[in-house]
Amino acid sequence: MTVQQSYEPSSREESAEERHPEGAIRLMDGTILTCYPKPEEEKPQEGDEELRQLFIDNAFYLLAHRERILRDSRMFLTPVSVQNKLAYTESPGMDAPTIGVYLEWWSSCLGSMVLSKSGRMSLIYELTGSPHSKFAICRQLYEDGETEPIHLYYFARYWDSLMEINMRYNEAKQIYEAYTLQELLDILHEEDGGEKDFTSNVREHFLEHRIAQQNAYITNLRNELSSWQNMWASAMLRLHDDEVRQIYADYKALEQRVTSEIEELRSQKQSLKRQFKSGQLAPRSYQDALKTVRAQIYQLEEQLRVFGYKANERLRGRGVISIQDICAYVENKDKAESDTTNNY
Question: pLDDT at residue 45 above 80?
C-alpha cells in the first residue's frame, strides 16, 4: 500500500512563553494543560520491548480516548518505546515520543491514518528511512494488532512533522510528571466502567482524517489545474498576439464610450433627484424616469460583459481567458517593452 500526505510544518516561530507557559504545556491546538513536577523518586518503567508491545496492543484503544488524553498532561506525556530513526545519520529530536505526541501527529499529519478501500484501518507508528529518499518502508499497525511494512512517499515530510511535534515537548518530558503506559491504561479502563466496543469511535476519527486528506488532494488538483490553465492561456495569448491586441483596442474603445455614457446617465440621475426634491417631478414620474435611466446603465454595462464573452470565443478560450487576462497581457507586455527601450 502506498500513501501520500501533505503535512506542512508551521512557518511561524513561537516564543517560549507562547509554546509553554510556566507550569504548563500548550498543545498544537492551543489547549493549555497544567503540569505537575516530577516526584523525587522516579516511577519504574516497563522494559523497552514490553512497553513497545503494550503500545502496539492498545494504540487503537488510546486513539479512541484521544479527547480524554489530551486533557491531562500526565496522560499526554506518557512515554512509549518506539524507535523512529533516519538511515545513515543520527536522529536528534526523536527521543522518547509520548502518547500525546502520537495522537497529535495522527491528527495533523495527513496520511498517518490509513483507511483502505475495503475499510481496514491502520496507523503509521514507526518511521525509518533516508531523508534523501522520495519514499521509505516504514511500519503500520492494524486494529487487530497485526503490523506490516508500508511504503511512504515524501518520507521527509512525515519525519519532519513527527520530529517537530516531539521536539515541542522535549523540556516538558524532562521536568513534568507522566503516567506509565500501564497506569494510563488502568485509569482509562476504570473510567470506562466495563467492557465497551470503541470501533465506531475510532472509525469516526479515521473518516474525519480521510475527508481532510481528500479535501487536501482536491485542493492540490485544483491548484495544479489552475496552473496548467494559466500556462495554456499565456501560450494562447502569445500565439494570437495580433488578434489579442485588436481585441484589446476594440474593448478599450468600447469601455471609453460606455464609461462616458454611463457618467452622463448618472448626471441625469442627480438632476432627476434635484427635480424631485424641488417638486418639479411627481413621485410616479420620478420613479419611472429613474427606472429608465437604470435600465440604460445596465444595458451599457451588459455591452462590456457581452464583449468579454465574445472575445473569449474568438480565442477559443472556453472560459479560461477573460477580457481582464487580455488587458493584463497587452498592458504588461507594452510596459516591459517600454522599460527595455528606456534602459537603452
Answer: no
As a whole number of angstroms, the distance between CA 309 and CA 311 comes to 5
Say which residues have a Cβ less than 8 Å from residue 325's Cβ, sequence separation at least 6: 233, 237
Residue the block writes with cell 496520511: 111
pLDDT digits (tens, 9 = 90+) for 186-236: 999 999 876 677 888 899 999 999 999 999 999 999 999 999 988 988 898
**Using CA atoms, how far apart are residues 125 and 123, in angstroms rounded to an integer?**
6
Contacts of 139 (CB under 8 A, 6+ apart): 124, 125, 126, 128, 147, 148, 149, 150
Distances in Å between the alpha carbon of 13 and those of 18, 30, 48?
A: 10, 14, 34
Any idea how long the chain is? 344
Q: What is the 3-state secondary structure (H, E, C) of 275-297?
A: HHHHCCCCHHHHHHHHHHHHHHH
Q: Is 251 helix (H, G, I), strand (E, B) or coil?
A: helix
Contact indicator for 101, 66 with CB cutoff of 8 Å: no
Query: Cβ(107)–Cβ(172) under 8 Å?
Result: no
- What cell was used for 303? 455591452
